[in-house]
């Protein structure tokens, strides 16, 4: 059998304490292993799995279906919990494998093995990828345990436990497998180092800005477009990169405040962490002229930061410096930096820009530490409630350490906005919660772009168009590379029917964050609301070449196909997604529109039952009802959605949304539209 590459759910099992038992009682150990293998063989076959390997007291198997792998694991633990009990731990991951006749290899196998090693007897642990595929499966309950770094695995992996029935759920401190030191435990060691960053960043920015604004070659001045690549962690130990990544993000944040400089967003820049691509290749992909790269080395109370500015077209080093200082001199360093900035930046920067760049967000090391960890969870959340909750709590912890920490208040408000964007909580509830920290941030610092961006987002979701535009434009004035502000403005212009301004703002979004599928998808859905369905489809087709497995891009393409009445094609794409492939509300609508009423009703029932347990935007349920031509219930749920605060995206576009065209002459629908500005 030739080797084949495929996507699979990989399960490892292991009998805890087997070696010790073997030493104490060989007969008993053999009996336990025999019973373990018998149960394993019968159950694996029942759930369509394939046994790859037995090794001592453990097993390796693969499944084509993640759901079947998890159900098999649950059934196995039920069998092993019967007397006499067998203390087995189980770990599951999903990913690409290369399978031969009697073996499998691949990074995903390595991850699955390490997930299993974290467990305790009676537990089933899964990776974040498995958890993503279980998100809409009501029969399977999961609980976030911790985010860990495994040895020889180049990313932090959130770990979840299956909590059905009497399964054992390990505590965070019980995760003792093949891991590197925990992020936060290591990061706490850097508390004093964190404040040093705030001082040294200004020095880096001084040199960089001076060059960018005073290009020596007057005959060949280039547009000041810059990407800051993730700074390399030059420590020789296993310390995580969170400190180096924090420096990268802070440099981007500071540089984004400069009016005549366009800086690629953090999200796109981090795609090139540990990249083997040349600087020319990266610059071409990001469409920038300059690259800033650097490195960080930490040794006891000494930090060395190297920064290097490169003209990407000819790979010419234009500016470089290094900063090697003891941590205890942080305030002296900041004082010296301020004097350097005062003499140099007056030539190139406005007084307001000098003030913003020179502003220290906090002088409290603990606050800064909590804030940086909060940002880590916020950025990788992707709509996962457990990640958003961690970010929210850590931002609040930063505020406890420093009640004057403006950016931490903005972080809390932005986290509440994420709950709305992903449909995880009632918008009305989240808007009420977000307003207080956003206004507090404004009271602390009225010269912060992030504050006005948060206030603009709140006004956007409240349908306060003019106020939202005013706040968002102020955010861009203070922070010209503020991606989120351009994004919200683009949506407002889309709902006004102004395709020119919509495209102008979205093009700026994608110039600053070209690798964000979230924003690419947003532009595609904006085309939907402008009835420019083919433009949306063309954009998605182009983007899916680069990101072929992205679920959001697939959903947006299906949305635009539905706008053209090409429901069968939309159904095919929705069914190909790796999440909610059989339960998505848009799929239910499309089934209804082709007359597959049983399938549409099954999805409707699923969403109604789900809504009894967690928040489901009523708009989504209304959409399925309109697909079934149940206009009465469609209007009923649209009215419910408005009562819960609605979602600006859906309600501002309700008038243009072709899905609800059949309601345009209904007095109740007209009355509802009149309530939306």
From TrEMBL:
Q: Which InterPro entries match?
A: A/G_cyclase, Adenylyl/Guanylyl_Cyclase_3/4, FlgO_dom, Nucleotide_cyclase, TPR-like_helical_dom_sf, TPR_rpt
* Pfam family of the protein (one): Guanylate_cyc
Q: Which residues does the UniProt record annotate as the domain Guanylate cyclase?
A: 9-116
Placement of TPR repeats on the sequence: 449-482
Q: Which UniProt keywords apply?
A: Membrane, TPR repeat, Transmembrane, Transmembrane helix
The UniProt entry, under SUPFAM superfamilies, shows: Nucleotide cyclase (SSF55073), TPR-like (SSF48452)
The record, for Gene3D superfamilies, names:
Nucleotide cyclase (3.30.70.1230), Tetratricopeptide repeat domain (1.25.40.10), TolB, N-terminal domain (3.40.50.10070)
Q: Where are the transmembrane segments?
A: 195-213
Give the range the annotation lists for the signal sequence: none
Its GO biological process annotations read: cAMP biosynthetic process; intracellular signal transduction
Q: Which GO terms describe its molecular function?
A: adenylate cyclase activity
UniProt protein name: Tetratricopeptide repeat protein
